[in-house]
Amino acid sequence: MEKKKLSLFLYLFLVLLLAGFLFSPATADPTVGSTTPEIVVGVKPGDWAGYGNISVEYAANWPGLEQEPPETNMSWVSMEILDVQNNNVTIRGSTIYANGTEETEVLWKDLVNGEGLLGITIIPSNLGAGDEIPAEFYGLFFVIQPPPQNISKFVINGTTTRKYAGANREVNYINFSSTIIFSNITLGASNTSYYWDKNTGVLCEHSGSCTMAYGTELYINMSASWRMTATNMWPAVFTVQDGYTFDITMLSNSTISDFNFSEPLMQISFNVTGPSDKPGYCKVTIPNELLQGSPWTILLNSIDWTTMSSITENATHTTIYIPYTWNIIYGQAISTNTIEIKGTSVIPEFSHIAILLLLVIGTLAAIVSKRKVNKKTSLVVQYI
């Protein structure tokens, strides 16, 4: 079979998947007790995810593999669902490198039989421990057909809760290890972990490492980690607590960080990070019981952005849509904007007064009650 080079977009997701196939099939203990789940597609056209926390390291002196691959300079990867037909999912994947170069391509996968170049980037939704993931097996730069018989199947190890794109999500995970063998010589091993959002089946996090050595002279060491930092499939939730609890939700195509609520300043502030010179947005929903604006003031990097924003209100919440373009910073593919949302009144400050009044009233009531008890006791003593 002719070797088919994988897309650069896929490289990040698959480079450590079966790293042992760089030279030969990896061996691993077969997984037993797996089940075949009912296939349910959890994504829909328009769903989107961005991966911003990317770290790839590579070092090698193996002949022909000494040069660091371009994927080590990835800065941002995004995935948009274009089409869902029965069990076939088609996506547009984009990769942005540190030098600003961008690559975009369209990929697909059949979730029933695992065919397609998406690998395990998207799996069926609502899987659980022991469920097998339909997927083709990949080498570093080519699809292996048919898959070797001595490789473990991809079987969900368990389910846990982790935070992705600003929200706690129930996720399925796999921890996978393989031994790298070539001509009956053990060269090294690879270890990797994957986490998928249980409800959508979208890959949320990957981390892994691969080490190979031949004697004391030749070696290949690589590691990679990344995680989903932005999506429109669920809102990021930031909880304000100071004697009260309110949730502020955000939908954005940006990585949101450094969220802060200041009661004295009557404002919300946070940073949004994404590809330089690309359009971004953030849709913020604020409970009216927490903060109100008459009027609101929106600042983008200290510049008044109120007229550029859209503000809608109802009886319980205010929603503010803020469009922007990430700054162009020379030599950087990723940049950060700072957003401040300033109101004119903070409702919880009245709660503090109410609590103080309740404490005063409670204290007075206790004093009066104590006096009544003491008076009654005194009368009883005199009667005796």
Quick gist of this model?
The protein has 384 residues and is mainly β. The protein folds into three domains: 8-229, no CATH class; 242-346, no CATH class; 356-384.
Order of helices and strands: HEEEEEEEEEEEEEEEEEEEEEH
How many helices? The count is 2
The Rg value, from CA coordinates, equals 28 Å
Q: How much β-strand is present in the residues?
A: over 45%
Would you count the extended β strands for me? 21
The dominant shape is: globular
Largest sheet: 14 strands, antiparallel
Q: Kindly state the mean pLDDT as a whole number?
A: 79
Total domain count: 3
Termini separation comes to 109 Å
Ranges where pLDDT stays below 50 over 5 or more residues in a row are 1-32, 138-152, 350-358, 373-384
Structure classification: mainly beta
Account of the 3D structure:
- There is one protein chain.
- This protein has 384 residues and is mostly beta strands.
- It has three domains: 8-229, no CATH class; 242-346, no CATH class; 356-384.
- 11% of the residues lie in helices and 47% in strands.
- Strands 1, 2, 3, 4, 5, 6, 7, 8, 9, 10, 11, 14, 18 and 19 form a 14-stranded antiparallel sheet that branches. The protein has a five-stranded antiparallel sheet with strand order 12-13-20-16-17, with no helix packed on it.
- The chain is globular and about 75 Å long.
